[in-house]
Amino acid sequence: MNTTHHTPSDFGLGRSSRRHRRAGLAGFVGDLCDGKAVYGCHLVDVSLGGFRVTDLPETFVACRHNYVAVLSGGGAHYRIVAKPCWKRPGKVSGRIDIGFKILDAPWRWIEFVMNEIPAGGDDPGFPRSS
Length: 130
Prior knowledge:
- By secondary structure, the protein is mainly beta.
- The protein has one domain: predicted glycosyltransferase like domains (Thrombin, subunit H), CATH 2.40.10.220.
- Helices cover 8% and strands 50% of the residues.
- It is built from 1 helix and 9 strands; from the N terminus they run βββββββββα.
- The strands form 2 sheets. The chain has a 6-stranded antiparallel β-barrel with strand order 4-5-6-9-8-7. A two-stranded antiparallel sheet has the order 1-2.
- The two termini are 25 Å apart.
- The N terminus and C terminus are likely disordered.
C-alpha cells in the first residue's frame, strides 16, 4: 500500500505530498548505464522510493525505461535499477538534474536509506525543491 507523507512547505504554500521521506547525502557519486555508455553523476538526495542526481551531461537523454545505477559512497557500492521520473536543467550550463524512481535495490541499500532519513520528516537541512 502506498502512503503519502505530508510535510509543511517552507514557502508558506501549504503542504507538499511525497510518498517517502527524503534526506540529503554528501560524498556519494553514481554511474548510470544506458546500455551504450556510462555517465558519472553526484547523488544529492535519497528516499526509499527514489534518488536525485546532478551533474549529468545534457547528452544523457533519460528516454529509456530502466537504467542500471551504481551508487557509491562511504566505501560501499549499491547496484540499483531505476527509471527517470523528471529532468531539469542543472545549476551548471550543459548539465542536468534527474529524479529516479527505484525499481529494484538490494536490502543493504534499503537499510542504508532507512538509517539516513531522520524520523518524523525530511532532513531539516534539506533544501526544498519545487
